[in-house]
Amino acid sequence: MSEESRTALPLVFEQPRGRKKPPRHLADLTPEERTALAAELGEPAFRLKQVAHHYFAKLERDPAAMTDLPAASRDAIVEAALPELLHSVRVMEADRGTTRKTLWRLFDGALVESVLMRYSDRATLCVSSQAGCGMACPFCATGQGGLQRNMSTGEIIDQVVDGAAAMANGLVPGGPGRLSNIVFMGMGEPMANYKAVIGAIRRMVAPAPDGLGLSARNITLSTVGLVPRIRQLTDEGIPVTLALSLHAPDDELRNELVPINTRFSVHEAVEAAWDYARVTRRRVSIEYAMMRDINDQAWRADLLGDVLNAYGDWGWVHVNLIPLNPTPGSKWTASRREDEREFVRRLEAKGIPTTVRDTRGSDIDGACGQLAAAE
Q1: Which runs of consecutive H residues, i.e. helices, occur in 130-263?
Q2: Active-site residue, from 126, 155, 287, 368
Q3: Shortest CA distance to 227 belongs to which of 7, 2, 5?
Q4: Which residues does the record give as S-adenosyl-L-methionine binding sites (predicted)?
């Protein structure tokens, strides 16, 4: 099948039809659409700019704090521009409060999760891009629940604003601070909700009052390997970090672990990632969940090194091994430490920089989707 015909085909597991759309939100709107909304409200265009300044720069959503808006129409303006998109159902903490996992209920009852993690040198928020996921990876809690719907740009951004406000207001131990990093590694396959995700990234990197002013280089966009979308991202001109969730270096095993591999093979996914690195000069991260006696054999480490080394030799790639956070009742479990160490040794012997991810939140249903499934 040609690349053109692949791109023309609708991606599998797309959003079910007939779902109601989330309320229109400031973060969903272009500058022209904001002007149109102001006109609908009978207000001058600069009113929406004032609201945007409160939301993106001050991380404020409470109308009472927006005293520069006329008192008579303040509530109506804010209700129209900043409708409630996320309702906090539960917040769980781990690592002495420096890891905060929030379960959100969306307007239609769908549940999603985000996780805020504070480290000594940064604060990272893991965001969801879909309610559920259609990729059906058998070791993933979210994948087992199927896809409910795509999230809107506003719903994605609202997670970020909440995390940034938690940091700015000192709700995370360590005093007031700044949210610095975003990873699209929560619920959903970001590339299957491409338009909303790219819209959210553009809002994240735009300076206030049009966005949050984050660095694109501190945003990581993860995918299981939707090749046409990786190639589309290559042309976007946004220097985010691409993370390819590979999990196996051979098609036989990856077909089982990541079913989309039957459509876009290991070679095709890695080649698209290599092209992204070549064009953007941004190093790609290969995500690899370590599963005991499934994908952690030493020979697979050697094969993974060979697969990655088949492309450029300028350090284009980094492997991030992830100790599996097993879901209750699952046959999938974390690798033995000695197998993990040998895997690292084999990759490094082939010149592949390799790290093992710091696992957080294992005592608060840390694997993405577990909290929503429990609810």
Answers
A1: 141-145, 153-168, 194-205, 227-234, 251-257
A2: 368
A3: 7
A4: 188-189, 222, 245-247, 325
What's the pLDDT score for residue 375? 59
Q: Domains in the chain and their CATH numbers?
A: 26-81 (1.10.150), 87-374 (3.20.20.70)
Q: CA-CA distance, 274 to 268, in Å (whole number)?
A: 10
Q: Is 188 annotated as a binding residue?
A: yes
Distance, in Å, from the CA atom of 188 to the CA atom of 134, rounded to the nearest integer, reads: 7
pLDDT at 362: 59
Residue 247 annotated as lining a ligand binding site: yes
Distance CA 128, CA 105 (A): 12
What string of DSSP letters covers 6-47? HHHSPPTTPPPTTPPPPPP-GGG--HHHHHHHHHHTT--THH
Catalytic-labelled residue, pool 43, 60, 113, 155: 113
SS3 247: coil
3-state secondary structure of 351: coil
Q: Do the Cβ atoms of 227 and 242 come closer than 8 Å? A: no
Q: Which amino acid is at 233?
A: L
CB 276 within 8 A of CB 282: yes
Average pLDDT, the chain: 91
* 87 labelled ligand-binding: no
Q: Is 137 annotated as ligand-binding? A: yes
φ, ψ of residue 125 to 5 degrees: the values are -115, 125
Residue 126, marked binder: no
Q: Kindly report, residue by residue over 118-129, the tens digit of the pLDDT.
A: 999 999 999 999
Q: Give the Cα separation of 374 and 371 in Å (integer).
A: 5
Q: Please give the pLDDT value at position 312.
A: 77
340 is catalytic: no
Is 140 annotated as a binding-site member? yes
Extract the residue ranges of the chain whose pLDDT is less than 50: 1-12
Which whole-number Å values give the CA distances from 137 to 12, 180, 256, 330, in the listed order? Answer: 14, 30, 8, 12
- What whole-number distance in Å separates Cα of residue 333 and Cα of residue 338? 15
Q: Which of 139, 161, 157 is nearest to 59 (CA)?
A: 161
Q: Is the peptide bond before 209 cis (omega within 30 degrees of 0)?
A: yes
Tokens 């309702």 correspond to 87
* In contact, 103 and 116? CB cutoff 8 Å: no
Q: Are β-strands 130-132 and 123-126 bridged in parallel, bridged antiparallel, or unpaired?
A: unpaired
Provide the pLDDT for residue 142. Answer: 85
Whole-prediction pTM: 0.92
